[in-house]
Structure formats: C-alpha cells, structure tokens
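Handout, section 3.2

Students often ask what a structure token actually looks like in practice. Rather than define it abstractly, here is a full record for PDZ domain-containing protein. The first block is the sequence as you would receive it.
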Amino acid sequence: MRRHHQLAIFIATFIPMFSYAGTGHIGLGLDITPSGYMPPKAKEVIVTSVEKGSVAEKAGIHVGDEIKSINSCVIPECSLEEFAQESHILPGSKVKINIVTNTGKRKKIELIGA
C-alpha cells in the first residue's frame, strides 16, 4: 500500500508540468495511468480538462482524447520521468502530440507554449 501512495505523489508532481511547465502553458489537465515501478511508465494518458481559450482548445483537443505520444515519448513505452521532460513547455517552445480523439480518430498536433 505504501508504494501506491508514493507512486501517486510522484504522478501528481508530473500532471501540472504538462499544463504549466516553467512559465509555458497549453491548457490541458491529464489523468496518467502508471504501469510498473522501476521506472514507472505512463501506461495511458487521457485529457481530463481543456482550458477555455487555451492553445489546446484552439488545436481541437477535447476531454476524453488519449495522448499517444509527446515529442519523442511514445506511450506506453515512455517512463513518467521521460514524459515529464518531454512535456516541459516554455513560452514559444513547440510540442508535437499524437492523440486518438474520443471518437477514435488519430490526430497529429503541434502546439506552441503560450
């Protein structure tokens, strides 16, 4: 039970990084399902919120969409640490995201941190 609690704290640390890394911002809230312990991997990443007027909303990302990759981090092979590094967004920096929409359509999106 203690390992699960530590893992939950570890994951909670990374979720905000995608949304607000440094001073960059794209406006996504994520639910990350972990897999394994050494190192834990991002098994599944689902969009849980999209901020109104954000870069993500303008790109057509919706709640329920599943992120399949971010830059070179392909899910589920990518570790949570790698996911955090790849999703570190600075203003003006580009992030390439592959998603499967909540309707099953695959999309490649390039976002620029605001």
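Discussion prompt for tutorial groups: The domain at 2-112 is CATH 2.30.42.10 (Pdz3 Domain). How would you have guessed this from the sequence alone?
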